[in-house]
Structures are given as C-alpha cells and as structure tokens.
Amino acid sequence: MSYGELDNLCINTIRVLSADAVANANSGHPGAPMGMAPVSHVLFNRFMRFNPKNPDWINRDRFVLSNGHGCMLQYSLLHLFGYDLSLDDLKHFRQVGSKTPGHPEAADTPGIEVTTGPLGQGFANAVGLAIAQAHTAAIYNKPGYDLVDNYTYMFFGDGCLMEGIASEAASTAGHLQLGNLIGIYDDNHISIDGNTNCAFTEDVLKRFESYGWHCIHVTDGDNDLSAIDAAIAEAKTVKDKPTIIKLTTTIGYGSKLQGTHEVHGSPLKADDIKSIKEKFGFDPEKKFDVPSAVYEHYGETAAKGAAAEEEWNQLFAKYQKEYPEEGKDLARRLAGKLPEGWEKALPTYKSTDPAIASRKLSETILQKLYPIIPELVGGSADLTGSNLTRAKEAVDFQPPSTGLGDWSGRYIRYGVREHGMAAIMNGLAAYGTIIPYGGTFLNFVSYAAGALRLSALSHHRVIYVSTHDSIGLGEDGPTHQPIETLAHFRALPNCMVWRPADGNETSAAYYIALISKHTPSVIALSRQNLPQLENSTIERAIKGGYVAVESEGAQVTLISTGSEVGICIDAVKYLKEKHNVVARVVSLPCWEVFDAQPKEYKLSVLPDGIPILSVEVMTTLGWEKYSHEQFGLNRFGASGPYKDVYAKFEFTPEGISKRAIATIEFWKEVTPIRSPINRAFAQLI
Amino acid sequence: MSYGELDNLCINTIRVLSADAVANANSGHPGAPMGMAPVSHVLFNRFMRFNPKNPDWINRDRFVLSNGHGCMLQYSLLHLFGYDLSLDDLKHFRQVGSKTPGHPEAADTPGIEVTTGPLGQGFANAVGLAIAQAHTAAIYNKPGYDLVDNYTYMFFGDGCLMEGIASEAASTAGHLQLGNLIGIYDDNHISIDGNTNCAFTEDVLKRFESYGWHCIHVTDGDNDLSAIDAAIAEAKTVKDKPTIIKLTTTIGYGSKLQGTHEVHGSPLKADDIKSIKEKFGFDPEKKFDVPSAVYEHYGETAAKGAAAEEEWNQLFAKYQKEYPEEGKDLARRLAGKLPEGWEKALPTYKSTDPAIASRKLSETILQKLYPIIPELVGGSADLTGSNLTRAKEAVDFQPPSTGLGDWSGRYIRYGVREHGMAAIMNGLAAYGTIIPYGGTFLNFVSYAAGALRLSALSHHRVIYVSTHDSIGLGEDGPTHQPIETLAHFRALPNCMVWRPADGNETSAAYYIALISKHTPSVIALSRQNLPQLENSTIERAIKGGYVAVESEGAQVTLISTGSEVGICIDAVKYLKEKHNVVARVVSLPCWEVFDAQPKEYKLSVLPDGIPILSVEVMTTLGWEKYSHEQFGLNRFGASGPYKDVYAKFEFTPEGISKRAIATIEFWKEVTPIRSPINRAFAQLI
Ligand SMILES: [Ca+2]
Ligand SMILES: [Ca+2]
Description:
The structure is a homodimer of 685-residue chains.
Chain A: H1 5-25, H2 31-47, E1 62-65, H3 71-81, H4 87-91, H5 121-140, E2 152-156, H6 158-162, H7 164-175, E3 181-187, E4 190-191, E5 194-195, H8 204-211, E6 214-218, H9 225-237, E7 243-248, H10 270-279, H11 292-322, H12 324-334, E8 356-357, H13 358-369, E9 376-380, H14 384-387, E10 411-413, H15 418-431, E11 435-441, H16 442-445, H17 449-457, E12 463-467, H18 485-491, E13 496-498, H19 503-515, E14 521-524, E15 529-530, H20 538-541, E16 546-549, E17 556-560, H21 563-579, E18 583-587, H22 591-595, H23 599-605, E19 612-615, E20 629-631, H24 642-648, H25 653-667
Parallel strand pairs in A: 1-2, 2-3, 3-7, 6-7, 9-10, 9-11, 11-12, 12-14, 13-14, 17-18, 17-19, 19-20
Antiparallel strand pairs in A: 4-5, 8-15, 16-18
The complex binds calcium ion (2 copies).
C-alpha cells in the first residue's frame, strides 16, 4: 500500500492532539502517543475492522494498549474515528468524572476493550482475547460462515516485556499457536529510569522465537509506513504462530526532547509544543486543532467498519436460519444470558449426606454445569488434579497439531502461570462469549493479585477456583497456607469472596458467581472433607450469610465460614454439655453479598443483645466488622496432618468454647450490646 | 573426575531415604529427590564448599532448591553431611513442630538458605544471593584476599520456569552478567498436569540465551555423572554470564512409575519402595537405612568444608590486620550490627518546617544514611525518579563492561520487575552482608505479593519503599490508586506496614525498619506534600501510634494515618469552630508496632469513654480493630488532580467532621464506651 501526505497529516494530528491533551491536563504521557502515532494510523486505517458506532460488535478486531500510560494515543484515535468521545472529553483528560481517565478503563470509555496501565496486563489480556476468538470460531464458524474471524492487535513497550506476566502469557500464546494475535513492540529504548540498557538488554525477538512466535523487525517505525504495513500484512499470513513486530521508534517523536525519558511521563513545555506544531505544519497558536481532512479520512475508515458490521449482521441472520441451534446459542451469549433453567443443575445436599471436601463439591458442580453452560471455559495453573477443575468429558483447548485437543476445547492448561492465567481470563471475559474460571491454590491467587484487581476494576465475570484454602491443607505447610489472603480480597472493591461451608453453600457460591455479570468471584475451597450442615440451603446461602444454628436464649453468636462452621456447630453442643452455655451459629460464606442484604435481614442474622465471636483459621483482620471478639490466626501456620494443625491452634470445639465463654463474660458489663450491623453512618459507594 | 560404585551407593541412598521419609509422612514429593539425587551428589561432594557445623559461614557456597516441594532431597543431603538434622528429624517430615516442614523454611532448618516452595521464588532468591556475593566481593576483596568468592547454585524445575518471577529474575541475571550463578534445570518433562507438552513447549535454552546466559545440556542426568561434573566445571569457567545446565532426568527414577506425574506429589506405594530398594541393592525390609560408607564419604566432604572455613577464618584474621577498616566493617556486618550512632543521621522536623511529600522525606533519609550505613543497597522497579530511592552519589550496581556502574555499586536497576525485585531482595537479605530496599508504587507491591509473603515468613529485613500510596496520587487514576493494599499487608504476619504522616514519622519508620532484623517493612509514602505535625517526634512515632492532638474534654477520637492525619487535625479546628465539638487526633503510622506496646500505653492513646472514628482514604477493612466507626473508601478511586479526588470522596475537614458528629451521636446511648484495645482474650502467637 502506498502512503502519502494525508497519512502524514493524520499521524501528526494524533501527535499534536495527544501533546495538547497532556499539556492541558498538565499530567500524562506524551512520549508513547507521539512515537506510536504512525503504526496506529496504519493499523487502524488499513487493517483493523471496527464500527465506532457499535463498540460491542462481536466480530470487531480487538485492540489492546498494554502500555496503557500512552492512552492519549487511544483516546485521540477513538475521537478521530467517531467513537462517543468528543474533543471536549479529550480536554477533560485526567479530570474527575471524565471519560478519559489517566489510564484506559474498559468500564469508562467506549472502544476501550480492557483496562490497562498496570504493565504487562494488557499483553496477557490480548492473549485471552485471541484464545476467545479461536475458541468461539471453532464453536460457531461453518462452511461459508466465517462468523468470528477477528484479529487481536496489541501494543506494548519495554515495561510490559520486563513484567513476568507478559512472559507467562507469551509462552502460553506460543504454545497455543495463536495465529490471530499480532503484537507490536514499541522498541524505543526508553523506560522511566532512562535508557533500557541499564536493566533490559535481553534479545527480545530471540526470546519470542523461543516461545514459538513469528518475529519481524521494522527498523524505522517513525517514518517507514510501507514497512509497517508490510509487517502487519506478513503477520496476518502466519496462521500458526502469534507474531511480534519489533518496531523501533523514537519516543516523543517531534519534540525537542525526543528519544529521551523526559518525554515519557511529563507534559511537554509550551514552546516545545509550539515548535512541534510548526514542524508538522500546524498553527502553533491553536490547540486541539483537527484538520477536517483528517476527520474525513478517519470517517471513511469508520464508514467501512459500519458497512462491515452491517454485512456481518446479514450473514448472522442467514446463519441463524441455516444453523438455528448454534445461532440461538450465540445470540443468547451475546445478549449476556445464561441458558434457561441452568440453575436446576446445581446439586443440593441433605445433612445426612457424607462429608465432602468443598473442592470436590466444586468439581461436581463444574461437572454438572459442563453440558448445560457451554460458555464455561475452565482451566488450572497446573493443579488440575488438586483443584478438580476439569469435567470428565472436557476436551483441552489446544492446537490440533499437538494431538492433545482442539480449538473448540473448553479446558485450558495454563501451566504454572497464575498471574498470566488471571489476566488471560480477563481477556476471555472481555471477549463477550465466554465465562472463564481457573484454578490454583488460594495462596497462589496472590501471585495473580495484579490481574484479580483488574477483574474487579474492569467488571469482569471471572471465577477464581481457589482450593487448599487454609491451614486445613495440612502438610504442605506455611508456604502454602493462606493467612492474609481472604482479607486481601475482601478488601478489594467489586470482588466477591466465597468460603462455602458445605455442598449447598458451594452451589450458592457458583450460583451468585455466574449470575453476577460484572463482578469476579474468589471461591475458597477446602482440601479436607466438610460435613453437610443441617440448616444450609442454596436459598439461604445466596444471601451471603444466614443462621446455621438458632438457639432459644442464646448467650453468644458464633460467626464463621467454610471449614470452621462445622466446628462451631460442634462447639454449640460442647458449650451446652460442658458449660450449660447456649450459643448460636451464623455461617457467612460471602461478606460482599451479605452486606448487600436489607438491614433488617442482617440484624436478624446478627441480632443486638448478645455478643458475637468470629471464628476463622486465618487473620482476624476485618472480622471486627461482624463481631465483638475474634478468634483467628494472626501468625503463619504449620506443616503437619491437618487435624494436628487445627489442634495446635485450638480450632476445636473446646478451643472455640473457651473463647466463647470469655466473650460472654467480657461483654456482660456493656449495655446495650449492639450488633455491629448498626453503624453511625453509611459508607460512600 | 571419575565416579564409581560408592557414588552410586550414595545417590541411591538419597533416593531411598527420600522415598522412605515421604512414605513415612504419607505425604510429600518423592519424584524430584529421586530424579535429582545424581546431580546433588556430584554438586555437593565435588563442587560445593560448606561447613555443616557452621551453616552461617559467610563464604559458603549457597544452594537454593527452587522446586522446594522436592525438599526431602535437601533434608536427606543435610542429614547425610552432618548438619543438625537427625534421622529422627527425617522421620518427622511434615509433622507439626518438626525441623522438616513440607517445604523448606529458612527460619526452621539449619542449612536452608531461603524458604522455597512457592514456585519461582527460589530462582529469584538465588539471583539475589549471587548479586550479594558479587557486591560483597567488590567491597571487601583485596589482592591476595579473595575473602568472598562463593558460588550460588540453584535447582529448579519446569514449574519455576513457567512462573513470570523466574523470567524477571533470569533476564536481570543475564543483564548483570552474574558469572557466579549456576542453575540446574531439572528437565523431566513432567509437571502436575502431566507431560509438559500440554502447556510448556518453549525452547528453554534459547530463551536463556536471549537473556545472556551460558547454556549447557546434559542429556542423561540419571546416570552420566561425568557429564554432570563436566557441565558444572564448565559453568565455573564462565565468569561473565550466569549458566543454566539443562539436565534431562527421569522423575522418580527407580520407581515403577518413574517418568510419570504420579511420582510427583504422592508417596510411592510400599511394594514400589521395596522394589526400588531391591533394585538398588538395599534391604527391602529396612527403612531409613543409611550405609555407613555413605556417612563416611559425606563426612569427608563435610570435613573438607570445615577445613576450608578454618582456613578462611585465618585469612580473615590476617585481613583484619592488614585492612583494619574494611575488616572491622565486615565483622560488624556479619555480627548483624548497624554502625554505631547511625540513627543520629535521621532528620527531624519542626511543625514550622514546610510541607513535604513523604516520598521526598524518604529520599532525604536514604540520602543521609547512604554514607553512614554502607550495607544499604537500594533500587527501584524502574521508578527511580518517582520513588526517589537513589542517593545522589550512588553508583549503579552494573557489570563494569556496561560503562554504567560497577560491582561495588549500591543501586540496582531492577527494571519493571516488581516480583523479581522483591524476591531478589529476599536473596540479598539472606546473604548476610546487605540490607536491601527497593521502590515501586504501593499499588504494584501487589505484583510482588508472593515474594513479600516470603520476606515475612523467612524473617528477612527487606524494606519496600512504596510511594504513591493512595488516591492522593491523583491523575494516574484507579488503576494505580491502592484501596485494598494496606489491609492486605497489615493482615500478613510478621510484616510492618508504615504510613507516616510527616517527616518525623518517616524517620521513625526507617528507624524501626532498620533495627528490626527479622521483619520486612512496607513504607507507604505520599506523592503529595504533607505538613509537619506539631506533636510528632521520632520517639513518639516509633511506638507505632501516639496522640497527635490532645484535647481536654474530647468527645471523639479521630484515628488516622499518613496524609489524612493533617486533615484530621484541620477537622479538629473545624469541629470546634463550626459545631463546638471537641475532638482529639491519634496518628497510627504502624499497626504492628503499636500492637506490641504495653496495654496501658495503648489505652492512653485510645482511651475508654469516647468513641473513635478512623479516617483513611482506603478500605475500612481492619480499622474496626481500633475504632468504633470507620471513614474510608470501599470502592475504587478516581482520576483527577488529587485535591479534586479528595473532595469528591469528602476527605476534607468538613467531610470528616460530619462523620465525627454522627459517631458521637450514635455512641451516646452505649455505656460504657470501651476502647477497642480491650479484648475478651488474647490471640495465639
Ligand atoms: Ca520503552
Ligand atoms: Ca518437572
């Protein structure tokens, strides 16, 4: 393809628009937008397929800016192509309440696919988006109906490549032979500490070759539009490998300080911007000045995208007639609906049923849902046999050439890559046709904290199957026994943390996790067997908390989760028999969900008048919210058979009873004893 | 070197001893010990220098088992060489209270250098140990005095290599040309999910070549002792690159199930163990049976190590005479003492001093301590200019050939590799001559959560300089604004979380962080300026909490940290002027340290009789521990100038006052109002 003056005008418009917005905000990163304007122009106009009027069109090409600090680039592009992002929005870059926050947020801005900025995340999200495309295509495409054939493009910088999460995702993408994934590496030799030679001297393309990627180097990313074009075109021809295009650019191209880290993260000076505008033939006195030719040109690209969607809509209408079952299923997924009546498959239990580990209960649920919710795509970070995350009949998602599965497979072997797995799941969820879940030990969800945070911030329905949830895992010891982990995720906004106590509660956890379209869930599951509780039902448990043992004239409420609820129930008997003390028990499998119940209900569960003792074999931090006294483990655990470990730390009916009595005694003198549900004021939301 | 029957006997002894211990515990991982027995035997007897009678000898070679689940290998070796680990200890493998927990813990077992098990950590720790050696050698070695010339050896498996943290550390080690680091990769094609071909098909050696490592492949790691020997010998000759030896082995070598994932993580069956013993010429009926020839042979190696230390002690004695200053300094470091009077360098501030961002206050401290505490080795994950972690006169720790620094440099450019940085710091701290600190944004310490957890569990004095600590960072927005982060680390045992409010508190944070030899510290620092408080002193702040504003007849206590303390003090005035309400203010820069104060003191800070309102611009989770009502931010923040963001969420004198009044009203009806310092029972520690 040939490129001319108009192209340069467009590219320079992106540059000055981005520089203007950063200067106007007096905050932001002008360097990357100015350096990557050429490749953006080529990619978006000559290769990408998208309709700015419908950012949700399923077969659009996906674009991820993994170096999210360069988001003024993306905002400029979205504006120029006619997304719902006005020049005024650009003028409010980095202001409270704007659609143009300091880093791109999927929930805030039309056209932003995933939230980026925390480095490396976008890279792994893109791998997830590419997996989702390959999988969705394998499920739905038919001869003559390439319903789903979009590409995923991503930009990333040196910072992303240094992050381990990108290594994990890159190795995964290479193994999976994701030919639909094209990454453009902004090789500008600059990171915040200065020249990358101070910390990052690896041979990037060789590294990506070792992962199984196709590698291309474009040496003049500042000017050689034809070479950029040729590289992307070449990448598209490689069907069995992801491609990385190393694009050597000059950060802050056009600035007096171009090529230095000074243009990375600070606004350019006024005289520098003026000189840039002069250099590029713009009026140095005008700000946010977009030549009409640029709007026109980008409008043409947008119109082509709109036409492509229209064509696709017709194709899909035809498809729905020829393949009514698949058509209905895809339409349902795109509407964000679960299959009618799916919840009937959730198992229920009676208290006479045998004790079962909640990881095993989870396995039963996943097995039962496997044939009913086809959009469930699972996996594990190399702990399949421990997390119990794989349905018996599942096929692995693998390149067919491996002989280990195929593209329609619904089980992903993530390898020992927790952070990568979580961020890939964010990408899977963002695609729009998949509900991802993935397993690891609860303790190692912490490795994925950066990505789980973005599940929450970006409103992704991602399910973290988190087994071996406490000292109850026993012999593996303190290195594997979570103490702080649940407190961490309970403190994370828009994240549901479940710690079910039995079968019905586990079903409740999955029920809420699956119907909550905009919230991730961490489901903490035991390694050891747990008894089925007498009063537990799915209906009760989906309120997040309920009365597990009611007792007339109770002197104390024991509130607990997961494996300790059963021990608390035993403690009720022990207290009665040994001390003639009457206690009641509340199971609180999910704080976030309980918090959302009406106050009246919450007070019926945690009534005024008697003190409350919390019991959980991990940090007490946060339990003060629901209790007057707390029994927990504010230290690391111990390696040994789990019953010995529980006994060591006194998580026994006797140990709980001792503390329950101390609680009753201690609170005798206070009147009234108010339930902690009563608060002086409401929190801002 | 030649190898014979005795060597095979030793190797098979390790195998059967490990299999016996795992079977006896009925829990554990026999596969790796059996597969890696040959290389261990060669490495420990023919190459490594260590004295089992003094595991702390500074010039010992370091050994790290990054695939820590294989720890029975290490326990067997430690026992056979005569470390303080008896056969009885091996019989108590994975039992409560034993010295042989399920994964190796540095604080529990003599001869264990670093805590491993969480995959990839040990790999990065080893990089830290190697950096420490190179740095310490550069500081102390003199002509004729190779005081510090040890190697760091590490074993790691497929799991470690899949983890991003290992990629980060490997890239760093290659950049740093760490010729003293030799890694042995247990290439056994097996991970928990089965054959590595399902998820891990990258070309590992090519990847390491791309990082700048020297690469060797030993194809028969089960039997070819000479090839193993030659590979390690070759690695030692390569002085300007770390070496990876890919050692192809058979997991569970000798078992009927060898080469399958079934021998990875479960005890071998009794009949399998019998057959192994028969195959290797052991009495199948005997357990924990060590031939005396093996003890003798390993005893000889141990004796050589003891002699080497003795020789070293003489060398060091001579060195101390010839280089008294350096000798004294090294002796001081080895004794774990800080330079006398160092604390006098900590800056103090008067309330009339200007407002300064606490990240800047931290910079001043690091600058002042730079010449006084030479063992302080700092760095940043590519945020030097933002974290302000570099002393002006600092030299970078870099290979001299880069022209960017030298081996004696005390500033490490970690690159954008937070997890790797943290785990490398654990290795630096474990070495014994360095106190490491490293900077990143507080929000991205979460990327390093896996390693920070091990700082705490392993008792490493590591300082996490964590700037941009709240919504106060402003424009970068919710992707960068911590909400859950401090709660997470406050819930982590043996971790000090500091959030200083001004200059004196920042000095106090560093004071306690530096004198706490067995505890890591997270120091949360503001981007924005903070006023110097009237009542703050280092002496008060080192108690973790103190009264910042006392008021006769106070009706409410405001308790706060960091940037909100100053706003609370303004709220006191506002409350008095606008509402005639009397309030007092407590600053609580470090919960962990405050918790350790005598109860009487704590009650003087948080007295009975009036309600307490906590104020912190992040999750309220955990604040119930110190307060009756909580004002916080249980949602994500917002992108904008920080004053606008604070105003949006009502963290203003007015917003605080409103809630203080609500708190007073709400608690009027309760008697007595007890300080939350009063508890019904003490927590287990
Ligand atoms: Ca860069
Ligand atoms: Ca392996």
